[in-house]
Amino acid sequence: MHSTGNIIADTICRTAELGLAITGASDAGEFTLIKADATAYSDRCPDCDNTGVFRDHVYRKLIDLPIVGFPTRLHVRLPRYRCTTPNCRVKYYQSQLACAAPGKKVTHRATRWILQRLAIDRMSISATAKSLGIGWDLTCQLALDMCRELIYNDPTHLDGVHVIGVDEHKWSHNRAKHGAGYVTVIVDMTSHHRDSASPARLLDVVEGRSADALRMWLARRSPAFRHQVRIVAMDGFQGYATASKELLPTARRVMDPFHVVRLAGDKLTACRQRLQREKYHRRGLRDDPLYKNRKTLLTTQQWLSDKQQARLDQL
What we know:
Elements (H helix, E strand, L loop, with lengths): L6 H7 L6 E9 L2 E8 L14 E15 L2 E13 L9 E3 L13 H12 L5 H8 L3 H17 L10 E8 L4 H4 L3 E7 L1 H5 L6 E7 L3 H9 L3 H6 L2 E4 L3 H10 L4 E4 L1 H24 L8 H4 L13 H9 L1
Parallel strand pairs: 2-4, 6-9, 9-10
Antiparallel strand pairs: 1-2, 3-4, 4-5, 6-7, 7-8
Helix pairs in contact: 2-3, 2-4, 3-4, 7-9
């Protein structure tokens, strides 16, 4: 089909890349309404792949990129056909568009636009949703679906991962709605292991904080991936250690620096409190030397001032 639209409007709105030709436009208040025809489509049945007989036209409504600050709605006219093949499961069908997935209301480029605004421009989900004239939930879901598609459809996603880090994260504090609200975070620390200045790379976030959460994630990975992992960095939680020992038997399990320092600090605090009780038979008060220097005791030596160092020397 040859384009019968306005070439200037098609160029400004870049509808040619969608396979559409603009045939009309109107101001619909808070939206810009664009009517268009498909410039290329197939008349073959999606079930039997035979050519159908033209029946009529239908309109498909799509959400597209905003134009001069106003949300856009596309009304695309598509031909509908009748399948003449005996015993075919499909009686009537309409042509499909390359610019949007079947049954979806948002164009592919609008979905990419959402991800770019959130990831690159750091716009909020609310502002992005308002620009497109859609809801917060739909905007968030579109971004998540595209992230999953970009990550999990990439066969090289886990190539070269030899060091992984595992830790829990408290993502929700509403126990009535989300229970404990913990997730298990798995990151690629291979580059960070070679160069501490290199950032870690997020691999996945799994619901729950347990041995099963990590065990199930590792079980879904390929044997080649599990074999290539040489080091697993984690906190002192026994559940993660158990899961990694079962599914990564050749990997070395280590505790990450943050939790090592935290554990040492907790032991030092416990020792300080014990000495306080043995000497004064009560908890520490403001003027007690041990209590007064409780934070100084947990400070790295290179960050101590001369006054703090002198107080520690007197303990």
